[in-house]
Amino acid sequence: MIPVEWLSAAEERLNGKIHRTPLTYDAERGLYIKWENHQKTGSFKARGALNKVLTLEDWEREMGLVTASAGNHGQGVALAGKLVGAPVRVFASKDAPAVKIEAMRALGAEVELVEGGYHDAEEAGLVYAKRNDATWVSPYNDGHVVAGQGTAASEVLQDQPETATATWIVPVSGGGLLAGISAALRNQAKPARVIGVQVAASAFMHGLFYRNTQEDVEDLPTLADGLAGAVEDGSITVPIIRKYVDEILLISEEEVAEAVAFAWTEYGEKIEGSGAVGLAAILREKVTQRPAVVVVSGGNVQPEIHAEILVRYEK
To answer: Cβ(165)–Cβ(22) under 8 Å?
Structure first.
């Protein structure tokens, strides 16, 4: 589990180095929305990556930072590497969105494109880090990464203390964000209800949560590319999520696209599929409790895909 001291230390460590992202309230729907698409690099991933890298010793940074990413975590590690002067190598699927690959390179990372999906990129990155004595920065399987992601919840609680007893709706893949937020919320006197949301096309954490296995889970193409891929064996996020999270819901591709369009037409916010799953759960009334906090995890969507979605759902 994540010590409470790690969560408070992450807040102090990141203070002034990341954006305090907007929290808005939709009174009509009883929704607080945390807009992590306004975070540095366009996603919450900057929180965990930067927190982890700032805990490293100088010699660990000098060995070089290696990670795997669908695109957002890689940007976070690249940003952290730039801040501390460490070289960064990211392993990513060759099918990752071009906008994310270009952003990682623009931040100074060397990007190695791998055949297959995210899980293949993660395996390649782990092998490379071990063979080259480089420092591995997991997207989720690391206590300091999880603590960094939990700072998103800390900000919401500070801005609106009443959310401590709300229902929280959080995207989940490897579980870093969901584990961090749920751990932060469990420190409250009256813990909130916490719901993870995942795409049905790549429901690995859902399998681990309900059936204790991901062996027979399909990994299909999805608009929520940042939520795709299997979970590393023995990930620390799994027991945290089992202990603190109430349920994990599944969302279809159509529901993801609908929520992306809704965010734009209703709130004027450009979000990616991975960040839209919580809103999708609300729109399809899969979560009816109010008030609710929806975490929109990122906004790094391929421009032509976003444009096509808006046309498809134009009223």
So the answer is: no
Whether the predicted model's global pTM rises above the 0.90 cut:
yes
pLDDT at 231 over 80: yes
pLDDT tier for residue 190 given thresholds of 50, 70 and 90: confident
Structure tokens at 231: 């979970």
Sign of CA dihedral 144, 153, 47, 263: positive
Coil, strand or helix: which one is 22?
coil
Residue 291 preceded by cis peptide, ω within 30: yes
CB within 8 Å of 193: residues ≥ 6 apart: 166, 167, 168, 246, 289
pLDDT at 125: 98
Find out whether 281 and 296 touch, Cβ atoms under 8 Å: no
Max CA-CA distance within the chain?
56
Question: Where does 57-214 have alpha helices with state H?
Answer: 58-62, 72-84, 98-106, 118-131, 143-159, 176-185, 204-211
Residue 7's nearest CA partner among 140, 144, 137 is: 144
What span, in angstroms and rounded, lies between the C-alpha atoms of 22 and 96?
27
Pairing state of beta strands 135-136 and 65-68? parallel
Please report the domains of the chain, with CATH numbers, ordered by start residue. 4-44+142-312 (3.40.50.1100), 46-136 (3.40.50.1100)
